[in-house]
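Action item from last week, closing it out:
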Amino acid sequence: MSEKSQLMLMAEYNQLMNQRIIKASENMSSDSLSENKGAFFNSVIGTLNHILIGDCIWLKRFSTHPSAYISLKSLSEFKKPDSLDTILFSDLTSLKEKRSILDNILIEWCGELKEEDLDIPLKYVNFKGEVHNKRFGDLILHVFLHQIHHRGQVTTLLSQENIDFGETDLPEIVPHEC
């Protein structure tokens, strides 16, 4: 399987897991969603916002790649957050709408990637003002791993509320070979 194919698989997995985590979170009251539970980003809604913010930041950075991806042009409508813990959406309905848009952009963009683009370094500046120049394919993988990490935190918070998130394993969507 090519690296691009793996990234496409991750984008599809990402979309499915985001849909499931939001659906499971809909079983919580708005007070429970925003209650500080001691997680990195305090609450379920705080963590879901952080995942969205991380994706926006990275995809905006990716839009500066020399390959000039058409599918990332629509990111101009996404405002760059001031910090990684900003609450862009305090309600799940609004967050779900933006999450869906962003997941569709991710899938379309991964389809647009070219294998040779993945080796071209991407130069970017982080929140601290530090300049980095790193292999593009590795940065893309980071976006998916970042989401997995924080969705794991949300599933823990959901289980503390006796909400079963269900299946999270990638092989569920891996195509059969025979």
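Closing note: The chain has five helices and two strands.
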